[in-house]
Write a structure and sequence with these properties.
With 97 residues, the chain is mainly α. It has a domain of 65 residues: Photosystem II 12 kDa extrinsic protein (DNA polymerase, domain 1, Orthogonal Bundle), CATH 1.10.150.320. It is built from four helices and two strands, in the order H-E-H-H-H-E. A two-stranded parallel ribbon has the order 1-2. The longest helix is centred in the N-terminal third of the chain and has 16 residues.
Length: 97
């Protein structure tokens, strides 16, 4: 019986020390947030992304209308005001369909 409690304690400690090992990880996609398809997202949906305000969302929509659909998430960097930082902050939340 005592061995079981020790094993449970060790498991709890190891999960606490390994980032992302349990629910509650910082990965927002793992928390149940739906991915945002940058080819179909509205201004309001784009504004839910970290580092994307109203003007940046409008530039994304204008770029998409002028140049067509994005082929890959990294193409978002072609939009003025969207850099690697925005992509890194939203890693796992963006998709292209």
């Amino acid at each position: 019986m005592r061995t079981g409690w020790i094993a449970m304690g060790l498991l709890a400690v190891s999960c606490a020390l390994v980032p992302g090992a349990v629910a509650g990880s910082e990965d927002k996609a793992a928390k149940g947030e739906a991915k945002i398809n940058i080819n179909e997202a509205s201004k309001a949906q784009l504004m839910k992304l970290a580092g994307v305000g109203a003007s940046t969302a409008e530039r994304i929509l204008a770029f998409r209308q002028a140049h067509g659909l994005f082929r890959r998430v990294q193409d978002l960097e072609k939009v003025e005001g969207v850099g690697k930082g925005v992509l890194e902050k939203n890693q796992g939340r963006l998709t292209v369909k």
